[in-house]
Every structure is written in C-alpha cells, then in structure tokens.
Amino acid sequence: MTRATAFSLVGMFVSTVLLNGVCCAAEPAVADKKPVDKAAAETTKTDAQALLEKTFAESMSGVTLTGHYTLGEIRGDKMPPAEKYNISKVTKLDGDFWQFDVNIAYADHDLTVPLKLEIKWAGDTPVVTLTKYTIPLLGTFTARVLFYDNQYAGTWSGGDHGGQLFGKIAKTAAEPAKKVAK
C-alpha cells in the first residue's frame, strides 16, 4: 500500500440484498410457497459475515504485502516505486474498525505502528477505508484499498499528491532458528 495505504492498509459497504418470494400481479399464485423466515435469514447473514471477518483476520495476520505505488501517472516502461508492509496481526475491534499491527516501508520511511482502520465490505471483499487519516511521522492520507485472492489494489492521496497501489500478499517467512554456540 503506500503512503496512503499507509493504511490504507485500508470502500463503501455494499450489503447483499436478499430477494425472497418477490411476485407480481401477473405471476400465478403458488400454493406451496412458504413465508420467509426473516430472523433465520438475518442469522444466516450474520453468521456468514462473522466467518468472513474471522477468515480476514487469520489471512491478514503474519503476512507481507509487497508491491508498488504510483505518484500520478506511470511514465515509460519503468516499474513504479516499491512498497512493503509487514503485518504481524490484524484484530477486529468495535463496529467496522480493525487494528493492523504493521511495519510500513517505502521510500526512506520504515516505521512500525498500530493502525486503527475502518473496513467496509463489498460482498466478500474487505476494503480499507480511510479519509484524512493521520499516521504519525508519515502524514495525513486518504485511501481505499481492497484485498482479494492474495492481492491488494487501491487508490491513495496525501495532501497534494496521490496515485494507485497494488501488489501481492504472502505469509511472512519464519525467521530461521538461531543456533546457540556450545
């Protein structure tokens, strides 16, 4: 992610609408149509969201996001600057807020911070949403970053500059055990 992702490691919440038993006057009556159990439908929806959130927390803890960010438009065949985020843990807080314990590295910055970020869900896709969010020592950012299928992508801005960011998500390699001299 980048400055902005800078959490970014960081949408709009799009909720799924269940259309059950919609009929119009031209449709013939169906004798065996059962009334919709709204409580059961809500429970199922709540359970499904809880599973999405649990999976997100597990899949985003102990990972490294490695990618690139742009500053405006891409010019030439040159790859945009690199960025790297080591996320040690992601934890659900109250409401739509999550804590990301992250090390942010891009350009000449290398900082480890806990970030309280808002996550909105677009169906089964989590989107980090931050607007004029201040990250100490880095600045104030606005970003929308989505995570899907071990990849991330989004937009970011910080003051009078901004661009896009994208990359891959991979489990962080375990550090080799240190040998103790005898």
Brief description of this entry?
The protein is mainly β and about 180 residues long.
Written overview of the protein:
26% of the residues are buried. Mean pLDDT is 79; it is low at 1-30. An 8-stranded antiparallel β-barrel has the order 1-2-3-4-5-6-7-8. The protein is built from 1 helix and 8 strands, in the order H-E-E-E-E-E-E-E-E. With 182 residues, it is mainly β. Strand 2 (82-92) and strand 3 (97-106) form a beta hairpin.
The major β-sheet equals:
8 strands, antiparallel, barrel
Number of helices: 1
Give the structural class.
Answer: mainly beta
**What is the radius of gyration?**
21 Å
Mean of pLDDT: 79
> In order across it, which strands form the biggest sheet?
1-2-3-4-5-6-7-8
- Please report which band the strand proportion falls in: under 5%, 5-15%, 15-25%, 25-35%, 35-45% or over 45%: over 45%
Helix and strand run? HEEEEEEEE
Measured between the Cα atoms of the first and last residue, the distance is 44 Å
Question: Shape, please?
Answer: globular
Q: State the total count of DSSP E strands.
A: 8
Low-confidence stretches: 1-30
What percentage of residues falls in helices of 4 or more residues? 10-25%
Helix-strand blueprint:
Blueprint: H1 38-60, E1 63-69, E2 82-92, E3 97-106, E4 109-122, E5 125-135, E6 139-148, E7 151-158, E8 161-171
Antiparallel strand pairs: 1-2, 1-8, 2-3, 3-4, 4-5, 5-6, 6-7, 7-8
What keywords describe this structure?
disordered N terminus, 182 residues, globular, 13% helix
